[in-house]
Amino acid sequence: MSKKKKWIFIGAVLFVLVILLIVYISIPSVGEPEKNFDYLWKSFDRNYSNFECKDIDWKALYDRYRSIVTPETTNRELFKIMAELLEHLDDKHVYIHKFNNVFFSGYDLPILGYSQLLKFDFRLPLNDFSLKLIKKKHIRGKFKKAFYVRQLNVPPFGLRYVFHYGWLDHDIVYIHISEMRNDDKKTEKAVNEILKYFKKAKSYIIDIRDNIGGYANPIKESLARKFADRDRVWAISYKRSGPAHTDFSEPEHWSIEPDERIDLSQMPVMLLTNKNTQSAAELFALVMGVLPNVTVVGDKTMGIFSDTQVYKLPNGWEFRLPIRKTTNHEGVWLEDKGITPDVFVKNTEVDIIGGKDKVLEKAIELIVAGNL
Predict the structure, then answer these.
(1) Does a structural domain hold residue 252?
(2) What is the pLDDT of residues 70-118, one digit of tens each?
(3) Which of the 8 DSSP states describes residue 269?
(4) CA separation (Å) from 168 to 130, 144, 204, 265, 363?
(5) Domain region containing 290
(6) Residue 158: CA atoms inside 13 Å, Cβ hemisphere, count?
(7) What is the CATH number for 165?
(8) Are residues 112 and 103 in contact, defined by beta-carbon separation less than 8 angstroms?
(9) Which of 146, 174, 226, 315 is the most exposed place for a label (fewest CB within 10 A)?
(10) Are 338 and 286 in contact (CB under 8 A)?
(11) How far apart are CA 47 and CA 40, in angstroms?
């Protein structure tokens, strides 16, 4: 077979596969809708950790939506019904996913197909933060990068760096962290590289604005511990453990201990937050917030703290729900409220367009003034 005929054959096969996929998606198939709906509702009823702060009558919602699920309900109809049910939770940690559709609760978005999912990155369209502005206006010398990510399987899709860092005026270190990756070795390697570059640092600004979260432990172990002066409890967590929505396990006290290899506990630190600081980034903010040398500056965080677990329906659809109630070290539950910074400063989109980052400028001002 010639090369030309080979490519024609491959193209024909791909065309047929696409047609078959379109036909498969469009078929209004039915697969035990009542059983699957009941499984979803019961899974949340038994395991979901945030009913108290949501103030939702979950049983009433069951009665409302279960009444429209029948043996003839198609998969497409069932997925839409489930999405409407979960939207009442208004919880950004909740999603449901089938072959060609995903629904995220709490974002005020419709059911997303894969083409729409390519653009989804968990951030609200606030436009109150810009790395380009910081690089152009504030960084002195090189704006370096570390920890390269290729993410092609789950959102947010794309190629990017986790860390951006450089010098500001007055020998102030600037580090931006865009997400919390679940990779201890690469996180530790990047942090060591960054700290080595900043041997002569006099103070730090750690920026977690627009941080989409992920996994808090690697960054806590590799970075936060280096600023710790002693063992400190930074959060209290409880797991759903019984049939009542208020049934939880005994409290787990999560603590941080100093890193004996590097001691930066006397170093002034400003931690910058905004409304798009979310999930594991908020846990990192709780960790850093208990340290006496750290001041949190910026806007309130998003307010999604719970650990989650992924389940599968009998028909194979995947869904995620929060299973833990996590408070700050004083026992204050911040779900749906977010962390209030020590110094409240809020950018607007107009500020950023006009070349002004009031949050960063305030952090620099506090460091220079020694007003920690």
Answers:
(1) no
(2) 999 999 999 999 999 999 999 999 999 998 899 999 999 999 998 899 8
(3) E
(4) 16, 13, 10, 21, 11
(5) 131-229+265-303+338-369
(6) 10
(7) 3.90.226.10
(8) yes
(9) 315
(10) no
(11) 11
Banded model confidence at residue 22, pLDDT cuts 50, 70, 90: very low
- Is 143 strand, coil or helix? strand
**Residue 302 and residue 326: Cα distance in Å, rounded?**
14
User: Is residue 310 a contact partner of residue 216, using CB atoms and an 8 Å limit?
Assistant: no
SS3 371: coil
Domain count, the chain: 2
Q: How many CB atoms lie within 10 A of CB 43?
A: 16
Of 88, 117, 146, the residue that ends a domain is: 117
Q: Is the peptide bond before 243 cis (omega within 30 degrees of 0)?
A: no
| 8 Å CB contact between 369 and 343 | no
| Residue matched to tokens 């208004």 | 90
Q: In the structure encoding, which two tokens stand for residue 122, read together?
A: 């968990």
pLDDT, one tens digit per residue, over 153-177 is 889 999 999 999 999 999 999 999 9
- Distance between CA 44 and CA 46 in Å, rounded? 5
3-state secondary structure of 312: strand
SS3 321: strand
Residues 6+ apart with CB under 8 A from 341: 273, 296, 297, 298, 299, 300
